[in-house]
Amino acid sequence: MIGAALLSSESDQWATPARVLRPFVAELGRIALDPCCAIHAHTSPEWRAGPLNARECWYADGLDQSWAAAVEGVGGGWVWVNPPYGRALAAWADACAEAAALGLEVVALVPARTDTAWWRTITRDRALVGFVAGRLPFEGPAGVRAGAPFPSALIYHGRRPLRFAAACARVPASVWAAV
Q1: Which of 63, 84, 103, 148 is the most core-located residue (most Cβ within 10 A)?
Q2: Mean pLDDT of all residues in the chain?
Q3: What CATH fold (topology level) applies to the domain 4-178?
Q4: 13: which residues sit within 8 A by CB, 6+ positions away?
Q5: Per-residue pLDDT for 52 more than 70?
Q6: Nearest to 161 by CA among 102, 83, 106, 117
Q7: H or E element in which residue 174 lies
Q8: Residue 115 class from Cβ within 10 Å (0-12 exposed, 13-18 middle, 19+ buried)?
Q9: What is the pLDDT of residues 72-91, one digit of tens each?
Q10: Residue 39 C-beta-side C-alpha neighbours within 13 Å
């Protein structure tokens, strides 16, 4: 069932399900930067305790800071982006494309809206795309869990496409394709 909160603009803070993130951490290593952490995302013991928690988490202004400097500042690694799915999504797609152009390794979890301009932006320049079958259950403020009203996709820019493909294969109910 789709939660009413996820369909509304009450909040755009929906945390990545751990079952989606775990395979990417296993294949790509610890996340260097999460430039758009949901404020409540790191409240569970699994997140606080370890590898799912990025070395650098920004709860605000992730579009106004240097992702490259942050990744370098923590000794390298990859960027996880689960952006707010509101009006700013196009700006996040632009930021992902810019980071990829700088050579950063980026994985983004976004709605699979292939008919939008921001989709064309985030998937340009040989991005790989993993489509998630079904609707992901996201965790919202105050522990609210709600199924997304749209399908999701994982977008990858980087030099380890086989690792991305292996991670996608481990995400429950996912398929992947090169774009």
Answers
A1: 148
A2: 81
A3: Rossmann fold (3.40.50)
A4: 38, 39, 40, 41, 84, 140, 141
A5: no
A6: 106
A7: strand 174-178
A8: exposed
A9: 998 999 999 999 888 899 99
A10: 7
Q: 33 vs 6, 116, 173, 174, CA distance in Å?
A: 25, 26, 26, 24
User: pTM of the full predicted structure?
Assistant: 0.84
Confirm if 160 and 105 have CB atoms less than 8 A apart: yes
pLDDT at 174 (0 to 100): 59
Give dist(CA 77, CA 109) in Å, integer.
17
What is d(CA 114, CA 123) in angstroms, rounded to the nearest whole number? Answer: 9
Residues 155, 50: Cα–Cα separation, whole Å: 24
Mean pLDDT is lowest, of 125-129, 145-149, 157-161, for: 145-149
- Residue among 98, 100, 94 at smallest CA distance from 110: 94
107 within 8 A of 101, measured Cβ to Cβ: no
* Closest to 10 (Cα-Cα) out of 113, 107, 82, 84: 84
- Distance of alpha carbon 140 from alpha carbon 116, whole angstroms: 25
**DSSP, residue by residue, 76-106:** S-EEEE---SSTTHHHHHHHHHHHHHTT-EE
Quick check: 102 pLDDT over 50?
A: yes
